[in-house]
Amino acid sequence: MARWTRTQASFLHAFFLLLPCASTSSAIEQEAGSLLRWKSTLSPANGGGDYPSSPLLSWSPGRPTCSWHGILCDAAGCVTELSLPGVGIHGTLTALNFAALPALTKLDLRRNNISGHIPIPANVTGLAYLDLSHNSLSGVIPDTLARATPRMKHLNLSSNGLHGPIPRSISGMQEMRAFDVSKNKLTGKIPPELFMEWPEITEFHVQSNFLMGGIPPDISNATKLQSLLLYRNSLSGQIPVEIGKLKNLQFLILAWNSLTGPIPHTVGNLSRLVLLGLFVNNLSGRIPPEISNLAALEALDLDTNQLEGEVPEAMSSLQSLQYLDLSSNRLSGMVPYLSISKLHAISLENNRFTGEFPLAFCQQASLEILDLSNNQLYGELPPCLWSLQKIQFIDLSSNAFSGNIQTSAKSSLFLESVHLANNNLMGEFALVLKRCRRLTILDLGENNFSGTIPSWIGASNPLLRVLRLRSNMLHGNIPWQLSHLSSLQLLDLADNSFVGSIPRSLANLTAMMQPKAELNIPLEVNYQVLGKFARYAYTERININWKGQYHTFEGTIALMTGIDLSSNYLSGEIPLELSNLQGLRFLNFSRNHLSSSIPKDIGNLKILESLDLSWNELSGSIPSSISKLMSLNSLNLSNNKLSGEIPTGSQLQTLAEPSIYSNNLGLCGFPLNIACSDGSNSTPAPNSQSQELEALSWYYSVLAGLTFGFWLWSGPLLLFEPWRVAIFRCIDHIQDRAVQKVFIV
Ligand SMILES: *[C@@H]1O[C@H](CO)[C@@H](O)[C@H](O)[C@H]1NC(C)=O
Ligand SMILES: *[C@@H]1O[C@H](CO)[C@@H](O)[C@H](O)[C@H]1NC(C)=O
Ligand SMILES: *[C@@H]1O[C@H](CO)[C@@H](O)[C@H](O)[C@H]1NC(C)=O
Ligand SMILES: *[C@@H]1O[C@H](CO)[C@@H](O)[C@H](O)[C@H]1NC(C)=O
Ligand SMILES: *[C@@H]1O[C@H](CO)[C@@H](O)[C@H](O)[C@H]1NC(C)=O
Ligand SMILES: *[C@@H]1O[C@H](CO)[C@@H](O)[C@H](O)[C@H]1NC(C)=O
Ligand SMILES: *[C@@H]1O[C@H](CO)[C@@H](O)[C@H](O)[C@H]1NC(C)=O
Ligand SMILES: *[C@@H]1O[C@H](CO)[C@@H](O)[C@H](O)[C@H]1NC(C)=O
Ligand SMILES: *[C@@H]1O[C@H](CO)[C@@H](O)[C@H](O)[C@H]1NC(C)=O
Ligand SMILES: *[C@@H]1O[C@H](CO)[C@@H](O)[C@H](O)[C@H]1NC(C)=O
Fold this sequence. Notes:
Elements: H1 2-17, H2 25-41, E1 71-73, E2 79-83, E3 90-91, E4 106-108, E5 113-116, E6 129-131, E7 136-137, H3 145-148, E8 154-156, E9 163-165, E10 178-180, E11 185-187, H4 193-196, E12 203-205, E13 227-229, E14 236-238, E15 251-253, E16 258-261, E17 275-277, E18 282-285, E19 299-301, E20 306-309, E21 323-325, E22 330-334, E23 345-347, E24 352-356, E25 369-371, E26 376-379, E27 393-395, E28 400-404, E29 417-419, E30 424-428, H5 430-435, E31 441-443, E32 448-451, H6 457-460, E33 466-468, E34 473-477, E35 490-492, E36 497-500, E37 524-529, E38 532-537, E39 541-546, E40 549-554, E41 562-564, E42 569-573, E43 586-588, E44 593-595, E45 610-612, E46 619-620, E47 634-636, E48 641-645, H7 650-653, E49 666-668, H8 690-708, E50 717-720, H9 727-737, E51 743-744
Parallel strand pairs: 2-4, 3-5, 4-6, 5-7, 6-8, 8-10, 9-11, 10-12, 12-13, 13-15, 14-16, 15-17, 16-18, 17-19, 18-20, 19-21, 20-22, 21-23, 22-24, 23-25, 24-26, 25-27, 26-28, 27-29, 28-30, 29-31, 30-32, 31-33, 32-34, 33-35, 34-36, 35-41, 36-42, 41-43, 42-44, 43-45, 45-47, 46-48, 48-49, 50-51
Antiparallel strand pairs: 1-2, 37-38, 38-50, 39-40
């Protein structure tokens, strides 16, 4: 009864006001009828239906339409808004009769599961806001959309499965302010009309599609643009000089395209620019000095292009800069002098910078990430480097730095990751360890460090996960206290002068006892860009001698567990207890003086993929448990004193290269062409396990391809919160495109 009265009241109200939709009560009934018809087409399990938790439960004929969930009406009782974001609606828009909703101004159905095509609405001339983002729409953007909805101001079709071109006719929506068709499968060119006929446009987002062609010079007509996101397409040609006329631009991201030619000098006119991202293109020439006019710039990312020459000196006047990435170009000359005190991250790796370590960096009180690796820098490292208060990550590897490391007493508390590999550094390395208790990764390989591994190592670096001291001049015993490093998962002491035996206590390295499951070692830094939350993270990068070849493990380094003690002077036996370390993926004890036999429980190392014991003095027979190593696909037992029959087993049968057993005392059986005395050198028939094994080795090769393959990603991640995170999809992208950088969107 009460319900009826309310309905009647709104009918009366409508009747007296005589507004467009509602000149009669039948028009209102029509609205209700049309909405209910649409509701009835929705899948009952998802959004439709009348079960108690249905988001559309309130949509019933007994209630006034204006009281329904998600419906707003004007004073006349006509439906003006339909907003049901993220309620789990599952269905299509086919049955939604726009003709019956003539007063509709806003339709927001984002984050549902609406499939099918975008309906071609009848003339809803008042519709100004249409958000269908994050659904499962397919088909094309209808050519007639602009004619039906000429007053559109906000059109968001992002994250659907739309294909075909962006229709030229859409330029007819002349009041357009925010246009977002990102993350679809759109092809063709960006119609220049959109910039010429949309004088009010402020946000133009078409990233992550398959758009081709150039950036139209007519872009300069869209003078109110604040955000221009064209990244992750196949755009080519040059960046038009006209871009400099977009005085209001704050976000300009053209990354991951095939743009060529220079960065236009006119970018210096974009005085409000906060973020400039031109990375992973084919831009050439110099960085224009005008870039230093960008007083508001907080993030500048030009990495992975072919920029050359010196970095303009005036760059140090960018007082708002927090993030600078010029990596993977051909820049030369001195490292730019940066007096900016707000810098959080500096990435200049993979260039041709020369000169000494810039002392100005010691003044960067906010600096958290510093990557100067793979340049031609030389000289000693200043002690002040180690006292940067916020520094977390330092990579200076592959330069020509020399001399001792002089850590200052006041060392950084936050240092987590130190990469100094492949320089000419010398002296004792131990002080770095002592001062930095948060260290997770220490890579000092390929230098000229001397001395021993201190016995206090286990006590002072409880978090250490990676210790790489390969190819130095270290000597002495491997201290048993190493086993206190309960997080240690990668230990590379190869190619030094260590003596004595392999400490039994290594079997107590907790982190090597279980396979690793996490994908990455997280190291990230948060910062704000213009109020929007943004963050960047550094992916770790370690070189490992993996299955006989050097690989750079990146991103997924956290999955890797192994011990490399090869090329030292170690003697004694291989501790039996090492078979406890069931998370090991590789073990290399090659080129030492290890004697006695191979531990008989070696088969317990279930996920071991690579085992190299060559060039030792191991004797006895090869334990039969070795045939239980289902993942083993790199084995070398050559140049020892082994004898007896080579065990057989499915996985071992795949290791058919005779050289892995060569030069021993008396091995026989497959794959050697030597029959054992009892005549059993015949290849055993593959047993019932072989299919399972095939599946397993397929899994491993996928993992190996993914994790340790040929792709590199070396730069920081840029993660922009408004665009959602999908790390696995990114990995696919990385493999597809072999780019060096992840920008998670
Ligand atoms: C959306 O609906 C389709 C079937 O139409 C289904 O396969 C898919 O899993 C649904 N997606 C979500 C996110 O519910
Ligand atoms: C929509 O309006 C245009 C002109 O304003 C007209 O030509 C067209 O016939 C109308 N379409 C419908 C379905 O009413
Ligand atoms: C479009 O929608 C997506 C997803 O709902 C959102 O992240 C994005 O910010 C929207 N675009 C604009 C320009 O508002
Ligand atoms: C676009 O801008 C140019 C000058 O930059 C001007 O001559 C032209 O009239 C503008 N076009 C429109 C459609 O506004
Ligand atoms: C840059 O150009 C080179 C050769 O001209 C080409 O191999 C490469 O794929 C291009 N890179 C991009 C990102 O377009
Ligand atoms: C824009 O930049 C160019 C090149 O740096 C300069 O010559 C021109 O005066 C600038 N225009 C404006 C309006 O600032
Ligand atoms: C390493 O240091 C020693 C002296 O400590 C020196 O003789 C040798 O040349 C250095 N090696 C390299 C590669 O710098
Ligand atoms: C490993 O740790 C256990 C418990 O702390 C200890 O009893 C054992 O002696 C250690 N083993 C070796 C070989 O150090
Ligand atoms: C083990 O180390 C030696 C010497 O460092 C190297 O030559 C060999 O390739 C490594 N073996 C594997 C399987 O990586
Ligand atoms: C095994 O090691 C020996 C000696 O280092 C080497 O000649 C041979 O090529 C290696 N075999 C394989 C398959 O790596």
